[in-house]
Design goal:
globular; three-stranded parallel sheet; Rossmann fold; 33% helix; GMP Synthetase, Chain A, domain 3; 11 helices; seven-stranded mixed sheet; disordered N terminus; binds guanosine-5'-diphosphate; 3 domains
C-alpha cells in the first residue's frame, strides 16, 4: 500500500490480546546511524510515523552488547518526544548481562526492564507495564456506536486531505475534534442532515507539516487501523489516473475487511469537458478492475470545487442504514426456499444439495448463515441467492456475507 517500494519493509502490525485488553503492536525496522542511505532514511521516517501514531513506545536495547552510541542517540530523540516509554534490555539471560543492563540507566529513560525473549523471561512484567501505561478506553468507544464512521483512503496525492476539508466544509457543524470524544484523537465528528457522523483522518491530513517533506505521508498503519474501525471506506482515485494497481490493493483491503465502500473519482474538474461518455468510460474501467464488488457506488467529485460531496455523504448514510438492516426471518426463509426450489443448485458428486435453514445472524455487514448438507456451493449460485436477497430487501450498495455451514439434517 505504500507509495515507495521498501518503505514498509520490516514493519509488522498485529493485534495483541492480553488480560482481556486488545492493543495493536507495530514492529518497525531497526534504526541505524545517520548514514545518508535513502532506504535507511525511510526506515527512520517510518519509525517516526509509527511513534507519532502510538500511545506507547517500546525501546529495545541489547544487554549482551551493552550500551552503544546509537542507543544514546535514539534515547536523546525519544526523550524529546515525551511519549510514554518502556526501555527493554533484551537478551538479559544471565547474571553478567543483568549487570550490563544496568548501564542503560544512563540513557535517562527510567529503569530498563530485563527480558530474555529467547527464554521467555520478563514477558509477564512487560505486559503488566504495558497495560498500566496504555490509555484507558473504557466508556469512550461507546460514544460513536450507532454513528457512521468514514475513512478516506487512497494513494498519495489523489486529494484525500482536500476531500476531508471539503466534507468538513463550513456548512457542516463540527461537533468536536478533540481527543477523548472518540477512540482516536484524529477523529472528527460532524453533523450532516441532522445525523452525526465521524470522519477518521487516514492520511495525516490534519498534521501536515509535521512530517518531513519528500518522505511519504501516507501511512500504512494509519490506513489499516482506520479501515478496521470504519463502517464505510471512501476509496479515492485520481480522475487523471484511474484504477491503478495500487488503487486495487487499497480497494482490496477495505473489501477483505467487509466494509462498506464508496469509490470516489476525485479531480473530476480536470477530466475532459463532460459529455457523459467520459463518466461511462471511467465507470467501465473501474468496474473491470474492481470487479469483486459490482455494487460499490462510484461518485465523481472535485474536492477543489466542492462538487459531489453531498453525493458521498448521502450514499454513506444509505450504506450505513443498509449495513445495519435486519430482515424478517420468515420472509427470508420463504424467499430462499422458493429460490432454491425454482432453480436448484447442481449436484455435488452426484448428491443433491439440501437447504435446511437460513438465518440472518448479524449486521454490519448483514450476514446470513445457510445450513446445508454440503457447503461447497458454486460461486454463481451464491451470487444468485445473494441477488435475490438484494432485490427483495433493497440492499443496493452494501456488502452481504453469505456463510454456508454443513449440517446433517
Ligand atoms: P492527498 O495526498 O491524497 O491527501 O492529496 P491532497 O489533498 O494533498 O491533494 C494533492 C494535490 O491535488 C494538491 O495539489 C491538491 O490541490 C490537488 N487536488 C486535490 N483535489 C483536487 C480536485 O478535486 N481537483 C483538482 N484540480 N486538484 C485537486
Amino acid at each position: 500500500m505504500s507509495e515507495v517500494p521498501g518503505t514498509t519493509r520490516d514493519r509488522i502490525i498485529g493485534d495483541v490480546e492480553w488480560d482481556g485488553r486488545v492493543f495493536t503492536l507495530v514492529d518497525t525496522g531497526g534504526l541505524e546511524g545517520e548514514t545518508g542511505d535513502p532506504l535507511k532514511e525511510k526506515v527512520r521516517a517510518q519509525v517516526e510515523m509509527a511513534i507519532e501514531e502510538s500511545d506507547l513506545v517500546l525501546f529495545v536495547v541489547d544487554a549482551e552488547e551493552g550500551l552503544n552510541p546509537l542507543d544514546e542517540e535514539i534515547a536523546q530523540w525519544l526523550r524529546r518526544l515525551e511519549k510514554p516509554l518502556i526501555t527493554i534490555a533484551n537478551k538479559a539471560d544471565n547474571v553478567q548481562r543483568e549487570a550490563t543492563a544496568a548501564e542503560f540507566h544512563r540513557l535517562g529513560l527510567g529503569e530498563p526492564l530485563l527480558m530474555s525473549a529467547y527464554h521467555n523471561l520478563g514477558t509477564q512484567d512487560l505486559m503488566e507495564q504495558i497495560l498500566g501505561l496504555l490509555p484507558e478506553w473504557k466508556g469512550k468507544v461507546e460514544e460513536t456506536k450507532g454513528v457512521p464512521k468514514l475513512a478516506i483512503i487512497g494513494r498519495t496525492n489523489v486529494g484525500k486531505s482536500m476531500l476531508m476539508n471539503a466534507i468538513l466544509g463550513e456548512e457542516r457543524a463540527i461537533v468536536s475534534d478533540v481527543a477523548g470524544t472518540t477512540r482516536d484523537s484524529l477523529d472528527t465528528r460532524f453533523v450532516y442532515k441532522d445525523k452525526p457522523m465521524v470522519l477518521i483522518d487516514t492520511a495525516g491530513m490534519r498534521r501536515r507539516g509535521q512530517i518531513r517533506p519528500g518522505i511519504e505521508k501516507y501511512s500504512v498503519l494509519r490506513s489499516v487501523k482506520a479501515v478496521e474501525r470504519c463502517d464505510i471506506a471512501l476509496v479515492v482515485l485520481d480522475a487523471m489516473e484511474i484504477a491503478t494497481e495500487q488503487d486495487t490493493h487499497i480497494f482490496g483491503m477495505a473489501m477483505d475487511a467487509f466494509k462498506g465502500i464508496i469509490v470516489v473519482v476525485n479531480k473530476w474538474d480536470l477530466a475532459p469537458q463532460e459529455t457523459g461518455t467520459e463518466q461511462e468510460v471511467a465507470i467501465q474501467l473501474i468496474r473491470r478492475r474492481f470487479h469483486f464488488m459490482p455494487y460499490a457506488p462510484i461518485v465523481f467529485t472535485s474536492a477543489l470545487e466542492s462538487q459531489g460531496i453531498q453525493d458521498i455523504l448521502d450514499l454513506a448514510l444509505e450504506i450505513y442504514e443498509e449495513r445495519g438492516r435486519e430482515v424478517p426471518q420468515n420472509q427470508l426463509r420463504r424467499l430462499m426456499n422458493d429460490a432454491w426450489v425454482s432453480r436448484p443448485p447442481s449436484n455435488v458428486r452426484g448428491r443433491r444439495l439440501e437447504l435446511y435453514q437460513v438465518r440472518q445472524v448479524d449486521t454490519h455487514p448483514p450476514t446470513f448463515v445457510f445450513n446445508v448438507n454440503e457447503p461447497t456451493i458454486h460461486f454463481s449460485y451464491r451470487r444468485y441467492l445473494e441477488n435475490k436477497i438484494r432485490q427483495t430487501f433493497g440492499f443496493r450498495h452494501t456488502h452481504l456475507r453469505l456463510v454456508f455451514k454443513r449440517r446433517s439434517e
